[in-house]
Amino acid sequence: MKVSAKLFIVGSNSSSSTRNAVDMACSVLGVAQLDSVIIASPPIEDGVNLSLEHLQPYWEELENLVQSKKIVAIGTSDLDKTQLEQLYQWAQVKPNSNQVNLASCCVMPPDLTAFAKQFDIQLLTHNDPKDLQKWIV
Questions:
Q1: What are the tens digits of pLDDT across the range 117-135?
Q2: SS3 for 133?
Q3: For residue 54, what pLDDT band results from cuts at 50, 70 and 90?
Q4: Distance in angstroms (rounded) separating the CA atoms of residues 58 and 70
């Protein structure tokens, strides 16, 4: 059995909340380690494009959790080919997957599939609502 978790970065979460969320997931699930953690990009202001700088603090904390053996592999959600490539080139621990929202595509973009194939990154689909804020209590 493999245990995976998806972390949604919302509001003004700090990168330390990433560690807290992983610890809580392990505790609730009764496991010492998560096989995979997917990080959903933090919300950004309208008109601003998601950049590597938005992801770096969270990714660095996930890398620390991989190094401490709390997580086996880490992945992303909703990155396009350019964003995934930038993260891949920068990261010490490379993403092993990228989820794509079914609402945004029916066919995976060819440039994204080519990049993912070249670097052995799984492309997965999800159907999470775009605006998670309204679902959070």
A1: 999 888 877 776 666 544 4
A2: helix
A3: confident
A4: 15
Distance, CA of 137 to CA of 122 (rounded, Å): 32
Q: For the residues of 64-107, what is the DSSP string, one character each?
A: HHHHTTSEEEEEEES--HHHHHHHHHH-SS---EEEEETTT-SS
Delineate the domains of the chain, giving CATH numbers in brackets: 4-135 (3.20.20.100)
Angle formed by the axes of helices 15-29 and 52-67, nearest 10°: 40
DSSP 8-76: E--TT--HHHHHHHHHHHHHHHT-S-EEEEEEEPPP--TT----HHHHHHHHHHHHHHHHTTSEEEEEE
Confidence of residue 102 (pLDDT cuts 50, 70, 90): confident
In this predicted model, what pLDDT tens digit does every residue of 25-40 receive, in sequence order? 999 999 999 999 999 8
